[in-house]
Write a structure and sequence with these properties.
Blueprint: E1 11-16, E2 19-28, E3 34-35, E4 41-42, E5 47-57, E6 60-62, E7 73-76, E8 79-83, E9 96-97, E10 107-111, E11 116-120, E12 123-127, E13 132-137, E14 151-157, E15 161-162, E16 167-176, E17 184-193, E18 202-207, E19 216-224, E20 227-241, E21 244-245, E22 249-250, E23 254-259
Antiparallel strand pairs: 1-2, 2-5, 3-4, 5-6, 7-8, 8-10, 9-22, 10-11, 11-12, 12-13, 13-14, 14-16, 15-16, 16-19, 17-18, 17-20, 20-21, 20-22, 20-23
Length: 261
């Protein structure tokens, strides 16, 4: 359940008693549908009512109230879960889903174990905290979450490691046993940053996967490590199944002694 913005340009700035507050209400309208190879269509997306509040003063942070309900708790036959209304609802998780890349009709939820479910186009993407994911047939109603449907695809991030040739091995694989999900693929990105508190992670490499008309879609990559300086490293993967594009999944962060070119 998303909270509506009061206007398209709901941006307010205020300065009070040395407190700098920024409250921004963002609405992104649906983009035009993009054509894909083979006559398939990529889903457009809309995120409406994402409220981001950041208030910093004198070395401490204060909280800001949202304009509407957030993180509402619901119960299904599978147990309790929370509707994800903004990135702050899942920012504490090691493995995350990029809400900005979700389809406009996607229903995103998280349960107490940190399992994230994305329901769209009659399919359900389940993202686990062990850096694996599954694609299954979706529940019959958009307000349901189910783990009882047969899995159509399963994916995982490759273990990050430096091999004997001093290359960083990274990537992902997706296996789809059901031919109804073909063609399928997985796109990947490598992000790295220094270990300092203020060191940002930046995009180092990206690889668009090849369409697989069989069970296995691989996207493994090897990039040279010119030095062995420790870097915080994450991999992102975007699964595709037939004509459905799911949001980007971000793996757990690890520190590895490799700074790729």
């Amino acid at each position: 359940m998303l909270t509506s913005c009061p206007s398209r340009r709901g941006v307010r700035f205020f300065l009070w008693a040395g407190v700098l507050g920024i409250s921004k209400c963002v609405s992104v309208w649906s983009s035009e549908r993009e054509s894909r190879p083979g006559g398939m269509v990529k889903n457009s997306r809309t995120v409406s009512g994402t409220l981001v509040a950041l208030m910093v003063a004198g070395g401490f942070a204060t909280s800001a109230s949202a304009e509407g309900p957030s993180g509402s708790v619901s119960t299904s036959q599978e147990g309790s879960y929370v509707t994800v209304d903004s990135p702050t609802d899942i920012e504490h998780l090691a493995v995350q889903v990029d809400l900005e890349t979700a389809a406009d009709d996607a229903q995103i939820r998280v349960d107490q174990s940190g399992t994230i479910t994305v329901n769209q186009d009659d399919l359900q993407l389940t993202v686990n905290q062990d850096s694996t994911w599954e694609i299954s047939e979706g529940p019959s109603h958009s307000d349901e979450v189910s783990s009882s449907w047969a899995s159509l695809c399963a994916g995982y991030f490759a273990n990050l490691l430096v091999n004997a040739e001093n290359d960083l091995q990274w990537g992902a694989q997706q296996v789809c046993d059901d031919a109804s999900t073909w063609p399928h693929r997985v796109d990947v990105e490598l992000r790295q940053g220094g270990t300092g508190f203020f060191d940002p992670q930046i995009l180092k490499h990206s690889s668009t996967g090849s369409w697989a008309y069989s069970r296995i879609a691989n996207n493994f990559n090897y990039d040279q490590c010119p030095n062995s300086v420790d870097h915080r490293t994450r991999v992102r993967a975007q699964p595709w199944a037939n004509d459905v594009q799911f949001p980007w999944i971000t793996s757990d962060e690890i520190v590895i002694g490799c700074n790729t070119r």
